[in-house]
Amino acid sequence: MSRRFVSQLGPQESVDQVFLASDKQLRPNRSGNLYLQVELSDRTGSVGARMWNANDHVYNSFENGDYVRAEGSTQLFQGAIQMILTRLTRVAAGGVSADEFQLLTAADLDRLVLRLGEMLRGMENLSLRNLAECFLLDEEFMAKFARAPAGVKNHHAYLGGLLEHTVKLMEVVLRIAPCYPALDRDLLLTGAFLHDVGKIDELSYDRGFAYSDEGQLVGHLVMAVGLLDQKVAEAERLAGEPVVEEMVLRLKHMLVSHHGEYEFGSPKLPMTLEAIALAFLDNLDAKLASFSQQLRDDPNVDSRWTAYNSNLRRKLFKGSPNGVEQTSGNTEDS
Amino acid sequence: MSRRFVSQLGPQESVDQVFLASDKQLRPNRSGNLYLQVELSDRTGSVGARMWNANDHVYNSFENGDYVRAEGSTQLFQGAIQMILTRLTRVAAGGVSADEFQLLTAADLDRLVLRLGEMLRGMENLSLRNLAECFLLDEEFMAKFARAPAGVKNHHAYLGGLLEHTVKLMEVVLRIAPCYPALDRDLLLTGAFLHDVGKIDELSYDRGFAYSDEGQLVGHLVMAVGLLDQKVAEAERLAGEPVVEEMVLRLKHMLVSHHGEYEFGSPKLPMTLEAIALAFLDNLDAKLASFSQQLRDDPNVDSRWTAYNSNLRRKLFKGSPNGVEQTSGNTEDS
Amino acid sequence: MSRRFVSQLGPQESVDQVFLASDKQLRPNRSGNLYLQVELSDRTGSVGARMWNANDHVYNSFENGDYVRAEGSTQLFQGAIQMILTRLTRVAAGGVSADEFQLLTAADLDRLVLRLGEMLRGMENLSLRNLAECFLLDEEFMAKFARAPAGVKNHHAYLGGLLEHTVKLMEVVLRIAPCYPALDRDLLLTGAFLHDVGKIDELSYDRGFAYSDEGQLVGHLVMAVGLLDQKVAEAERLAGEPVVEEMVLRLKHMLVSHHGEYEFGSPKLPMTLEAIALAFLDNLDAKLASFSQQLRDDPNVDSRWTAYNSNLRRKLFKGSPNGVEQTSGNTEDS
Amino acid sequence: MSRRFVSQLGPQESVDQVFLASDKQLRPNRSGNLYLQVELSDRTGSVGARMWNANDHVYNSFENGDYVRAEGSTQLFQGAIQMILTRLTRVAAGGVSADEFQLLTAADLDRLVLRLGEMLRGMENLSLRNLAECFLLDEEFMAKFARAPAGVKNHHAYLGGLLEHTVKLMEVVLRIAPCYPALDRDLLLTGAFLHDVGKIDELSYDRGFAYSDEGQLVGHLVMAVGLLDQKVAEAERLAGEPVVEEMVLRLKHMLVSHHGEYEFGSPKLPMTLEAIALAFLDNLDAKLASFSQQLRDDPNVDSRWTAYNSNLRRKLFKGSPNGVEQTSGNTEDS
Amino acid sequence: MSRRFVSQLGPQESVDQVFLASDKQLRPNRSGNLYLQVELSDRTGSVGARMWNANDHVYNSFENGDYVRAEGSTQLFQGAIQMILTRLTRVAAGGVSADEFQLLTAADLDRLVLRLGEMLRGMENLSLRNLAECFLLDEEFMAKFARAPAGVKNHHAYLGGLLEHTVKLMEVVLRIAPCYPALDRDLLLTGAFLHDVGKIDELSYDRGFAYSDEGQLVGHLVMAVGLLDQKVAEAERLAGEPVVEEMVLRLKHMLVSHHGEYEFGSPKLPMTLEAIALAFLDNLDAKLASFSQQLRDDPNVDSRWTAYNSNLRRKLFKGSPNGVEQTSGNTEDS
Amino acid sequence: MSRRFVSQLGPQESVDQVFLASDKQLRPNRSGNLYLQVELSDRTGSVGARMWNANDHVYNSFENGDYVRAEGSTQLFQGAIQMILTRLTRVAAGGVSADEFQLLTAADLDRLVLRLGEMLRGMENLSLRNLAECFLLDEEFMAKFARAPAGVKNHHAYLGGLLEHTVKLMEVVLRIAPCYPALDRDLLLTGAFLHDVGKIDELSYDRGFAYSDEGQLVGHLVMAVGLLDQKVAEAERLAGEPVVEEMVLRLKHMLVSHHGEYEFGSPKLPMTLEAIALAFLDNLDAKLASFSQQLRDDPNVDSRWTAYNSNLRRKLFKGSPNGVEQTSGNTEDS
Predict the structure, then answer these.
(1) Going by C-beta distance under 8 Å and a sequence separation of 6 or more, which residues neighbour residue C312?
(2) Rounded CA separation B307/B299 (Å)
(3) Residue C30's closest chain E neighbor by CA?
(4) CB-CB: which of F77, F84, F304 is closest to D213?
(5) What are the backbone angles phi and psi of residue C180, rounded to the nearest 5°?
(6) Most-buried pick from A29, B115, C314, E288 (CB within 10 A)?
């Protein structure tokens, strides 16, 4: 029987299928009886689940990041779908179809890696091309880069999210650069490629997503500079001549300034054309991804507005499904 | 004899040619003698000029916005070129080649207007196309729209600057929209077209640039809503049916929120995908224009950095002329 | 039997009377059983109510904004009165005494409308008087203006609240203006009248209070400018001559700047005497209303302080009921 | 011959009359020759004056705060009147008509003191009346209170300015209090009386205006609390019974919170009705005084806008002299 | 049987011993049944406790601040230990060993008072020594000063916390002053002694900790100035000569500016060397105490990070118990 | 003849001695004649100098950073000493006594380097000691570290300033650490040593002080991490075993967070005890140095206050020379 995805679940459904477990907790209810609370997800989203009268046994029978078979039923709780579990059993990863749990399939990731290489190898600047090649040829790096999420919550928080965000940003760079001849396209493209590479070690994403200690104590803006230093040394060894110092400085500057403002953790404000462009386009891509996701996932299906988002200090307007086109569509037919 | 443009002037040159005058003032020097201070410009920039021992007569012989024949010589003053005038005479506009005084030629403006129409008429949404047509057919509006600057100082502060900024922004929208399918391309394109239309009356630009009273007291974000209301009414009369209300709301929202933050004068934060995209792309275009201009015009020719800009709270990095490519260029040949 | 008002309810009372229903929700409790949560109000306040073991049937038997007969009893919950319902039935509006549910009676509203007209018609400035008359004669406008609340929560959030806030502000203007001869009294009075008129469409208040889409996307500061434009055109038609342009600009400026600071959604800072006075007096009236209401309604009856209000970033001091006068009162008698 | 006041001076006038001197400086010009720079004022304003080729002798012949006879002529300098002195001689205070140098005449001050007493003695609250009486009977206090300015620059920066600001604020309180029955009128009135009393020692105003060391190190908000403590003790001795503690606390709270926000130097936010009302009304009075003064004194007589004021982060709109009434005036005649 | 301290409690333990009660509340659960919620503490910390099916009787049988005998058992609730009570009985203070409930023993406090006197009497500046003596000899003052906490929550929130914080700060002053010869050591030491004395009346700490009305309405920064004024007058009476005015001003300035920034409630910014040093060292001591406490008390024992602290806008890094030394320790042995 | 230092210069003195030149400019005066403007300094400070009727010849005869013999005389200009030059000649560095131009003598620097090594080698933690040794043994590093200033303007802006600031901070750490047992003293000491090492390349200080390109584009917080990485690798090679990873993370965290707040350029907030202590103590040392220098150098010798400092948003209080001790001094004698 084909899977019923999280995004398809309605109230009052029976459920008996495999999910990815995370954020498990054992809590007492008001009467002092313990229950299990756990997040169950597949590639389309996640849903909160509770097992009443749970105990240490079930709590200890699986870890966050494990696949579990969940049996029970759904109900509506404060406007959102919730699952009430009758049984929860750990399942070996082997018997599971990974594609059901990853937003991006292996094929998606392959395609993105291919496109990444294509764009980088298409640069005219030989020096940058050589530098990029050092990253592309580093299999350990590429394995992480193709797997890491772009964040723990917020935008692109799924396996491969970093790669998808990076490639999208590079596509945008290629399209916009011709509009602004003063921009050094290849420099901006390389900056877009590298701006978040620090995240491959800032985050841990083997079982659930979290910040690594280094990620929290040092941060991906600074960590990326160390990665770049290594690859520059490598490129110089390969080319047998030094990479132009100013080019490296401009790249480092893009890495440390790409959050755009001090308050967002950039130790430097963007001071070059490419740095300011990178900061805006990165922010635009992140905001569009985040807005889109909220508009799509908002649980208040009969409201024209999403719930208030305190991070963004605003609600978002959903409006009517086809609010803009409806009349004009009719008119066009006539 | 061909014109020597402001951007070409060096120290210790004799000058005898026509400029556009602005910001004239009569001031006493430390000894109490009056001198005339005036800005002289052509399409490449402006230069401060002084006539020592000036009097009311010369001060009253021309107005800001007039063409004047300036005779005298240049010198270096605090790192910048300054003109010392021996004579200043008003010149009729008739005998002047306007192209020498406008950054954008009549041909440039024609081309931009053409492209504007092309993009708007290429929209698939009939309703938005009809609305846009009401603006395009309004000759008085288009005359102002093709002439207005985008600002008094800052970015695109020259005749036609509003049109150039708008068309550039629309080009960017057309290139980026395909990357983000969730964006309503036509809605975003129309928002880009209209976001600054309030500036046609916010600024006065017949003789020198200034804010109109209405511009300062009400502002172009609010004024644009009134213009839109008029054109919507017109479009409804022409089409014989109401424009979809939600579409108008979405457009108005883009107009009042396009500065992106309360502190920049937006009474609303962007709450739709198109509004957030517009705010970012508008800001990006403005920042790139402003950064480019500062990098190009910075008078400290032998410094790798521009002077500190207190608005941006930073200096900009100019670096070496070909800092990034130099070595790679050589290498590529081998 | 006479009504027992919300403000009179104590713990452990039986209840069987009519209330206005709002904010109904169906929620599961910890055991997964559904219960109904609804706000019940009359003109003296509102009280939360719950019906255990509720179902879709009762949830769908009434709408927010309906009158309902509530049967059950009260209890104390976290320091506040709560109602436990045994039965809830929709009641036709016809059989209800509306005055029990509106803070302002029809007579109150009539009196306020009368006073509004009196103040506006008492202005010496003929042009402003004509303009005001266009609003007063517009029955549809006046019907909305006399019914709209001034907000969804916060201050004056009840039917007629906008009118009451406006008239109070105008009274204050009339009293204060003589202290400051530099103020144009009539201009300030008209600004006070119009400052919040945009709220008649910013809010929806037929069944419960909410922001309209236009209210959230465009906002009452901008919407008011459109209303003013219409009435100015009307006044010009009636008078057969244009209204002085500067006067209209000054009014528009008061409308768009009356929140006083960018961060409160004003796209312009007050730049005239009347605009700065309006911003301060409006804010003062709102703050006094809000403080008074909190001091009056705070549920911690035995504390000298209200609960912490995170919007205001402070607690308020209630002190002793007659803390200030007690001794002096005694002394005065002797 | 009657005095020609500073506000009446035009360019190219000869001058020979007495002024109050302040802010004297001896400066070298570009050629290294010294000149004297000094501010000359009377009750209508002040004007900058320069004596070329001055020396130590003239610089040492008078002190800031002295009356001086100034001989010379006026000229226009950067849009403002400036005086060029040929001679400057110290003049004994005895031979000078003090009223020409004080914005407020002795009669004005008498009238204000009278009104102050009237309002305070009209309070119904005996305890506050007794407390106020302790201030009114303290001759040393009243002498300072009637003489102190309300500031060094900004609003009400002239002898008697504190008294004038205080009495105006109390008038406003008396007019507004009836609109808000929840306000304790007498408490608010006493708070308005006392809110700035700390300024009698925060500022020094015997010769020119300046902050005292205590004023800068401790500040008038804190200093006022000490003054109040003394008078409360006095009132208790006189009345033979303690003043109600809560009343004193409420007064102290009004004193320390009346700047309204932390960033303006209030160590506490207003937490009572009277404290919030005092903060708003004080700010309103200060802003109206400051705006009025700028609109009146702006030297750009032919501009519809004042110069940009960086403290207020805005320009102010002057508009046309009778911009609002002109047409309506005509219309009214017909 | 020896006491089991709060910090030693694990899940699933039976409990039967005495605690200090605070923050008691009677609440209904979802089914409408009332339960008692109360905080139970000893000198090592506090733990939340609940008694199901409680009633008015038990709620009224003790007051906050009383000692109670608690019988029941512990469980884990959302990662923290919680107590479920079966019985709760008030206990007379007489039979309780106070040292189990105070973080600081009587001996600790005696030692701190001794050290305080030692440091103050060791000052070289006679005038400051005399002033300090007036405080030390005031038994009522010293009794409060040795008992007051330094806060209600946050750092040093326990009996004697103010004394401990003050003495620690003075120790730091004595150690650091020699590094900065420009600092007046005795002035800084006196400032450190007095900076928080206002807290003896700002807080109430007889039964549980709370802010007094005066504390909230006026604040300890301002209240300290009044205390200082009294003691200066006393010192002058004793010495028969005035204390140098500037010294008093410098002390007052340290008191009112020691929060360092307006936003933290300082009405003045530090403007002397001693004031800026005091502000930094006070803040450092508070932050170290607060960080240490969070690192020590964080309930997530198996996490390397504390929970997010919204006041500090960060998590804290706990790391490994001996993360830094482990290898080096091994190495050192070899 | 012994040198007359800048700090000793009064008005109307003849001058003929050697200074260090910086910030030279050629400027026209109001009459269009050029003059030379240059800063002349020795170890006690700097003074502005002007040579009237200067030309390209003298301007090109020396570079910033050269020693020059200056002949001329001093005068008072706007309250400050200024030099008017009659002659200016470049002088070879060889014939100059360097100690007259450096605030810190070679002996001072030697002493500081010695003390630095002493403190680092006194650490108990072997691993940190090894790491520190790698820095101490690196002669190129130490040469730069002993020569670099700590800033371009502000505090410790002189050769050796970085070393002096670092050693002072470490002294403070050694004195304070025993007060806070929870602090890891050796970790904090190493952090204090390394916190500003990035400045050795952030600044250029061979001829005058400036930021390097890398300093401005990347910044010393990030650059220090790179330096640390190199030395850790070196230490691991030497020790033949890895340095504990957590220790390195804690050090890196201290480097990137030591500005304490995002707005001061820290990409991370301090999240460990040592990081928060470092940030406070570093800031304290910088503020005390900056305050001391302003109090000492303020040119208004007869004022009790320094001029307003817009960076600090305050004036500083100088008071009386012996304001605090004067009376007590007398008293102590009796």
Answers:
(1) C290, D269
(2) 9
(3) E30
(4) F304
(5) -125, 85
(6) E288
DSSP character at residue C306:
P
DSSP label of D7 = G
Rounded to a whole number of angstroms, the distance between the first and last alpha carbons of chain C is 45
CB contact under 8 A, D179 and C172: yes
DSSP 8-state code for residue A268: S
CB count within 10 Å of CB B95 equals 8
Minimal CA–CA distance to A52: which of C106, C332, C32? C32
Q: How far apart are CA B151 and CA B171, in angstroms?
A: 20
- Closest-CA distance, A86 to chain E, in angstroms, reads 22
Give me D264's structure tokens: 């303006």
CA angle in degrees (0–180, nearest 5) for E290-E296-E298: 95
DSSP-assigned letter for residue C79: T
Nearest to A121, CA basis, from A105, A107, A134: A134
Q: Tell me if residue C271 falls in helix, strand or coil.
A: coil
- The strand pairing partners of F87, in sequence order, are F71
- Whole-number Å distance between alpha carbons of A244 and E15: 71
Tokens found for residue C237? 């038609």
**What is residue B155's three-state secondary structure?**
coil
The kind and range of the H/E element at D233 are helix D220-239
**pLDDT tens digits along E94-131:** 878 877 877 788 889 999 999 999 999 999 999 999 99
Whose tokens are 């107009």? That residue is B255
Q: Which residues from C are below 8 Å from D167, CB to CB?
A: none
User: What amino acid is encoded at B268 in this protein?
Assistant: K
Q: Establish if A244 touches chain F: CB-CB under 8 angstroms.
A: no
The strand pair at A210-211 and A67-77 is best described as: unpaired
Cross-chain CB nearest to D32 (options F84, F315, F319) = F84
- Where is average pLDDT lowest: A103-107, D29-33, D286-290? D29-33
Q: Is B73 helix (H, G, I), strand (E, B) or coil?
A: strand
DSSP string, F17-32: EEEEEEEEEEEE-TTS
Distances (CA, A) of B113 to B99, B120, B131, B150: 18, 11, 17, 15
Judge whether B233 is closer than 8 Å to chain C, CB to CB.
Answer: no
Ramachandran area for residue E119 (φ above 0: left; ψ -120 to 50: alpha; else beta): alpha
Confidence at residue C176, expressed as pLDDT on a 0 to 100 scale: 96
* C19 closest CA partner among C75, C72, C60: C72
CB contact under 8 A, B319 and F213: yes
**Using CA atoms, how far apart are residues A323 and B125, in angstroms rounded to an integer?**
12
The pLDDT value given to residue C329: 34
Name which of B150-159, C185-194, F266-275 the model is least confident about. B150-159
| Helix C106-121 × helix C161-176 angle, to 10° | 40
Q: Does C32 touch chain A (CB under 8 A)?
A: yes
Burial of F140 (0-12, 13-18, 19+ CB in 10 A): exposed
Instruction: Report whether C295 contacts C306 (CB < 8 A).
Output: yes
Give the closest-approach CA distance of D13 to chain C in angstroms.
31
B78 has pLDDT over 70: no
Q: Residue A125 burial (CB < 10 Å; 0-12/13-18/19+)?
A: buried
d(CA F286, CA C265): 40
Contact in structure between D76 and B28 (CB atoms under 8 Å): yes
Say how far apart CA A219 and CA A216 lie, in whole Å. Answer: 6
Q: What is the ipTM of this complex?
A: 0.81
- DSSP structural state of residue E210: E
Chains B and E touch each other (3 or more Cβ pairs < 8 A): no
Contact in structure between D319 and D305 (CB atoms under 8 Å)? no
Number of C-beta neighbours around residue B107 at 10 A: 9
CB contact at 8 A, E67 and E42: no
**By CB neighbour count within 10 A (0-12 exposed, 13-18 middle, 19+ buried), where does B280 fall?**
buried
